[in-house]
Each structure stands twice: as C-alpha cells, then as structure tokens.
Amino acid sequence: MVMPPSNPNFPKNLQIHPSNPRSSRYTNANQDLDEEKFGPEAQELAIRKYGIAGRVWEAAYAMTLYIQPPGNLAFDPPMIDASRHADRVVIIELGSGAGLVAFSIAKILKPGRDHLIVTDLPEVCPLLEDNLRSIKEEVEATIPEKDAVIIRPLSWGNQDDAAFIASQFFGQPNNDGRFGALTHIICSDLVYFPELLAPLLRSLLHLTSPPFCHPSKTGSGYCGPSILISYKIRSLSKETAFWSAFGLWFEFYPVLVKDNDEGDWQRFGANFDDTTFLFTAHRRPESWSWVVPTTDSDLLAGVGSKGTDTKKYDDTFENLLLMGVE
C-alpha cells in the first residue's frame, strides 16, 4: 500500500487491525454498536482506504459510554449539566475518523435546537458522510433546516479551516450567528503522533477563542466551551509534551464515575484493561490575553503562556499519574 508520505493517516509501516469494545466492568458500553458501520469487518475495509482514520480507536468506546451511559452509571461532571438541559448544545468534534463518537452524540441531539459539527481531514470526510448518513437522516427527518449534523474538513492547526467554519455558523458578540456560541469540543483518542500534538493544541486554542465563543467572567471562573478528551496511553514519553503544554492554557480534571449498584466515586477508566482517561477541560480565563506563539516548537515549550516568552510546562497530568487518581 503506497500512499503520499504527507498523509498522516498512512504513517510509514502502518500495520493496524480493527478494534472491538474493550472488555472491562463496563461491558455494556457499546451494546447497540452498529456493526455494519463500526464493526470489525467495516473497520477492516475502512482501514484499507482511509488508514488510521478507518479504525475505531479504543478511547472512543469510553467516550460513547460517557455520552450514552446505562442507567446504573452516574458521571461527575455529566456531559450535559442538568441545570442547563434546556439550553442549546453546539458541539464540534475534532478528528472524528470513522464517526462512532459522532454517531453517539447525534442520538442525544434535540432536532431544531442542537448542532453537531463533525470534522476531520478532507480526505476522511467521505467516510464520515457514509457512516453518518443514516443517523443524520433520522435526526433531521422532522426539521425544516437540515443542519443538526454537519460534516466539514478541519485540519489541526489550520486557521483557514477554522475560520471557514466560523464564518458559516458562528457570529460576533452582538451577532450570535446561526448557532450561537460553541458549547462543547470533543476529542477522542487524538493524542498520539508527536508531530500532531502542537497542531491539535493550536486548534483547541482556535475553537476556544472568538468567534466560536466570547470570553466573559462567570461565577465559576469558567467560560467558553467544555472540552472532553478521551485518551489511552500508548507512548507516554512521546505524549506527555501535549499535556505539559495543554495544562498551561486549559484547566483539566479527570471525569469520575459511580456505579449506583455498587457505591463509590472513582476515576472513569480506572477499571479498564489499559490506562485510559476521560478529561473535562476549560480554557483558563486569563489566557485570552496571552499571545499564542506562531511556531509549534514554542507552543509545546510553553512560550507565550502566563504572558511571558520563557519556556515552561504544567504538571497536572504528571501529578495525576504520580497520585494514581482513582
């Protein structure tokens, strides 16, 4: 299989196989998995055509369980706060790949009010169109404007891609645009290749800045969209750089889970067969006045954060590992 070296979905010596929902105490995580679109055979075909984007990566199963939990599980925080259940939900997913997580999100949308923008590289969008066609038609069947589920190209770190989406759906402080403000950003199993860590962080900074949201002080200190990141550790030495830089611009915490049939709160993913996290994050309010560096090396080195040009790092993720937060 010969592909252009510039295509990140076909790294050199690519050898991957389809995944299955993890075996853990949460075995019912994907009891309604659409095998035709996301099962092993479908993944095998998609991998041949779309490379790593065709595989459902393991942390996606954790994210779908969080999005559509069974009745016996409670999460802190939940994806949608109960006090805001009547508010419009506007979600962007980065690196959507085969679309399993987007498929799950679409099921909880309220047609005519909520919106989901599903994104990936331009060459992956046809896969998303195929896999999300049925759920998109189902969600939009009763509404006049067919924009509950939208697929758009967005390459990480690409300001033009972000600006194009903003121009279509988001507005300025006195003009909310079609969708109003962005409420959630979803990232499922995106922290892996070292060369993509800075572009991913840059896209998160794009999406937590105007016109996607409009900074304002709130009682909780949080403003702007909630970021949800599911993450499976694969090569800690290569991936830590992302968290060290991410924590300078964003506050983040592990999502907790409680089985109502058994008792205590614990870190979601603690009982999985591998080291998996689900984080919730918000942009640090003071960071909107900081200058984002133009080079990827400076961004990962912490230049610009805290309003200075010195290199620095955040130790939130390191401390979570050391404490073994359960």
UniProtKB/TrEMBL annotation:
One of its GO terms (cellular component) is protein-containing complex. Gene3D superfamilies: Vaccinia Virus protein VP39 (3.40.50.150). Residues 1-27 are annotated as: Disordered. The lineage of its organism: Eukaryota, Fungi, Dikarya, Basidiomycota, Agaricomycotina. This is Uncharacterized protein. SUPFAM superfamilies: S-adenosyl-L-methionine-dependent methyltransferases. It comes from Psilocybe cubensis (Psychedelic mushroom). Coiled coil: none annotated. Residues 9-27 have a biased composition (Polar residues). One of its GO terms (molecular function) is S-adenosylmethionine-dependent methyltransferase activity.
